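User: Hi! I'm a student and our assignment asks us to look at how structure tokens line up with a sequence. Could you show me two examples?

Assistant: Happy to help. In each example below, the sequence comes first and the structure tokens follow. Example one:
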Amino acid sequence: MSFVEVAIKVPLHRTFDYKIDEQQPPLTPGMRVTVSFGNQKKVAVVLALKNTTDVPDNKIKQIIEVIDDQPILSTQHLDLLKFTARYYCYPLGETIHIALPAALRQGQCADKTSISMVSLSEKGEKLPSLKAKTQLNLLKQLANSGKSSLTELKALGFTKKTIDSLVTKGLIEQSIEYDNQWQQVAPTIGTKPTLNKEQAVACTSINQSSGFNSFLLEGVTGSGKTEVYLQCLENVLQRGDQALVLVPEIGLTPQTVNRFRRRFPDTPIMLWHSALTDNERLQTWRFCEKGSCAIVIGTRSSIFLPFLKLGMIVVDEEHDSSFKQQDTLRYHARDLAAYRAYRHKIPLILGSATPAFETLHKALNNKYQLLSLTERAQTSTDNQFQLIDMKSQPDQAGIAHASLAFMRQHLARGKQVMVFLNRRGFAPTLICHECGWLSECSRCSTSATFHKAIGQMICHHCGEQNNVPHQCPDCGSTQIFPNGKGTEQIEEFLMTEFPETPISRIDRDSTRRKGSLEKALDDINQGGARLLVGTQMLAKGHHFADVSLVLILDVDSGLYSCDFRATEHLAQLVTQVAGRAGRSGEPGQVLLQTHFPEHPLLQDLVNNGYQDFARFALQERNDAELPPVTNMAIVRAEGHNIKQVVDFLTDLVPVQGVSGIQLLGPIPAPLERVAGKFRFQLHIQAHDRPLLHQYLAQMVDYLSTNKLAQKVRWSLDVDPIDMI
């Protein structure tokens, strides 16, 4: 009798054995089967075939159905998922479930083998004047990208009705693609600039490497990192290999894919992000698997895509925190990219102007090869930084008079000005002028944010919404005022201060509608908006040629925090935001408003730049024995009963310490109460990573029989980047 070992989506750290019916089709690891689990039918993935099992004859069940005639997961892909489950201490069945597209994990057999592409017709290339602005915008998009899929156009906010109307007018054409013919011919290469010396050295180092190599491309903002990616990918495509390009945000994919399409006009390029439909995700999955797709540009979950012949992985803005999944399977796409490149024996490029300390630490210790780009591509002069001391400085809506004077100068020259504040809404809280009452969330240990435009108080942690009070709940006073500043308030003030200047606000509230972000960015690049107000959505990777001044408000909020990574994140954010200025050939100006202009972090950043700051801060981490010098994991627990939460974590602390393992806790989370639940943490550190994982594996095994684990909600975060 034969048996099969399968992984099932259940929160258990184990696999399961089933009997094989001799009448069923032959099985291979990576295929899907339907099995009975408890009282349910579940889709399972075959891991191995076995001749024996430890399950008694009277208890072992038989496979109900074989779904696939070929594996949907290769041996190499299964290896990636097994490694992911082991490393992040997460059940294998749930890991596989998360990695698969919805259609495949539900047992569907749909096989998407073609994709509908849209391009300009000969008539449309003349860009005729059209009354419908959306139709004209679509023609401009296609003129810019050369060719786009229906999926991309829908993600940009263009409707099927708009597309069909232009097809009817003969201005655009639809075609069905792809097959694997792109691998048989040399790729068409669009116009490309001449590399400077540093870019040329970087490309040569990457292109001449063989097998697995990790490269940290540390390039100042505007130094041409993307051009290095493109010229290295040219070699990959000429070999007929595929490539994966990871980007941190959905908002960056349209501009990235446009640039890639212009460079490789005949090369099949596809997208992967959360805005795709289930069918579109299945389609991309199948195209990668069959080799019909040459390049995928995707957000973090694209690291799990199958590739027929993967030749290179690029992680752009590798420092970005969005590459780390913060719930369920808490994986980091950058770190899995390193493991995957190692297993495929291919190069990995990690690009950033502000490398994560983990990445920089490896580069400085020769685990990664460091390639530096120190020259900006468009100008030979660096941006000019200036600290605006807010002590005794008059301000309006949080903007100093000195800052307003600089803004007027740049606007008078016809330039664009960006005002950055990483806080949406009108104000972080409301305050009673008579008794000091503050608007707090009833379920969290934090304030409720005032959103004036919709007349709501919203908690940004649990989502609780309430109407704005007209009287103080404590004393009945009507003297209730906004306390603090948000992007809504900044926009309202600037509209009054600069009534003739078009303003664009970009944050999560203003870009909720599909395609609204892309339309706003297009308006900015076309010169429509002259004043730009926004959160970090506005700061990440966007190229605004006319921005000559960047004003960063409330810098001080990142200087003092219980999170040891706060200064690193602040330095990265300031550097990235500052990089939006001075991209058109002349140096930009960057103003930082602070009450602590003498702070050593700000002085180091302003005078020496991120590279110098990061190396100094790494030494501080080393002295304090904090990551990346040591390895860390956090057990988080939450529940309505605070005693149960604390008892659960206390039970995990051994009476006698374990050699090489350091424990801290249980301690309250920095935000102790969220959505009515109390939150506590247990920090686990070790210099030796294998020892840490051995300890975590034993802990997870113990938790499977721990009764307190059933009474609280708990999670294990390996290599955490958010301490909150």
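Example two works the same way, sequence first and then tokens:
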Amino acid sequence: MTGFTDADIQCVNNIRVLAADVVAKANSGHPGAPMGMAPVAHVLWTKFLKFNSKNSGWWNRDRFVLSNGHACALQYIMLHLCGYKLSMDDLKSFRQLGSITPGHPEAHMTDGIEVTTGPLGQGICNAVGMAIAQAHLAAVFNKDGFPIVDNKIYAFLGDGCLQEGVSSEAMSLAGHLQLGNLIAVYDNNKITIDGDTAVSFTEDVEARVKSYGWNVLHVENGDSDFAAIEAAIAEAKTSVSAPTLINLKTIIGFGSKQQGTHGVHGSPLKADDIAHLKTTFGFDPEAKFQILQSTTDLYKAVIDKGAKAEAEWNELLEKYKQQYPKEASELVRRFEGRLPDGWEKALPTYSPSDPAVASRKLSETVLTKLAAALPELIGGSADLTGSNLTRWKDAEDFQPPSTGLGSYAGRYFRFGVREHGMVAICNGLAAYGGVIPFNATFLNFVSYAAGAVRLAALSHFRMICVATHDSIGLGEDGPTHQPVETAAWLRAMPNLAFWRPADGNETSAAYMVALLSTGTPSVMALSRQNLPQLEGSTIQKATKGAYVLEEVENADLTIVSTGSEVGLCVAAIQKLKSKGLKVRMVSMPCVDVFLAQDKAYKLSVLPSGNPVLSVEAYSTYGWGNVSHEHFGLKAWGASGPYDQVYEKFGLTPDGIAERAEKVAAFYKNRGQHVVSPLISALDDISD
């Protein structure tokens, strides 16, 4: 073990007093965990973590995730000390509007932050995804003598993370997958907002995590036993067939008058307590934001070590390029985020003469084609492979080689019945880079993963959720499985594309846009029942989010619909024609993508002059943005054969035609010019 000097002790105490100052200056935040975890942070960053702060995007860097994101003052301090683009002024602007040091870490905002963490448990799941990505890319690209991808994944987590169910989902899978590249440090300080964990959390955490297949190590004195911390991390690094949890016992707010209590968890220290803290550790009690010269000098050496590590790796990469040019070219392409030339030619196209097919089956066809064209496309299903149709022919499962079920080079994942953990893991895959992740479940159960879906959108991750059995069209399983409200909350989420394709061309378009949208996650809502191939649909038209499927001059009405209801609306229009009504038909597979188009295009699809009726087998909530009248479901669905369920709610050609007639007559009788629903006083289309 490497010896620890007085300078190391001073650095740790420097981190503690900085954490107190950072939170006090903001008058908001969590000083306790940063103060308690200062020793392990110092040991990790100075002795183990492989990074180059002058190039935070170095491909083979170790990844660090702060799952207990409320402790982010600690991470910001470490980034500052290690030379990332985070200044002392940024520390002083902690939690202030417009700063790059927000109240919880956010990816793409702060140099050196890998993932957005805040909701507890998400970060450790992201770390599992990163560990999967690392293991996969290492299996694909590493050669004898060329460990070109050999980084580790480190995560800090707390009692709250381990209480959240999503962490159990991901950690269970990580143990099954034998991810020896994953090292998690559990800040066992036995304090949450409500007080001592004795009031709610008394399980044997070690026994639980061991049962998942993890190694568990202990550090009894995480406050000052630096050698024990170093020894534990060093031992964890030797594991090749299991992830490791280090149970680190700390005193929250170490050095404070309130140490060991929940009073130091989520509130700034009082001025007298900060003075006490600084005096205890030998700092000037009147000075603020002090950094000792010994701290600067020690971390300067760490910065230099990181730059040297990348330089050595770059030399290895150059030799790799010479010996394995094909693999090197592919690795560089993937980490730079470039798609292969001509990949979009793999997308299938359809004509009206092609047979009716369920959009989940159309999705299977697309995934099969894309799997051959995009080797970086990886993913799987939450125990619904045969229903989601996400596994292409000849796909290899991602499994530990020792199981005989696959290999780490495999691209298909068996997530098990773990929807929330699945999506959170995929966020980690996306954050790592070099892969494009997808996951799958029934649309209704995307709600189980809502927290992770939200973070995908907030983090600007390219991640695809394949969500089959998308409506009352799934039939017999009934209201417990039929999503009525799900589309509304997904459409309401900023920076998320909710796609509901109506035929094969629209399905291909949905995947095309999703893959090109490098900063936006996508949800594909796909039918169980067969859908006809539509006259007038093309991939190019559908990529705009909405388009005119049937045009007519001097229209009495425009019907706009999505997914499985589009074909029903087309049939309804044929009935309306016989009654002399002129009806335009608009298919809108993705509302958000449509609303992002230019003014002229949007008004060409939904012009003024005739009313717009939306038709969808969901709650009508949210359709007021693009239509005047809305026909859908007012309550839950029903159990029964899907065609009978549609008939029960009037979602048939006859039922749609009946309502369309009423809408057209109502607006005609008013005798007023009908303004496009896209035009409003507060949200004018010209904005």
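Here is something you could point out in your write-up. The domain at 546-670 is CATH 3.40.50.920 (Rossmann fold).
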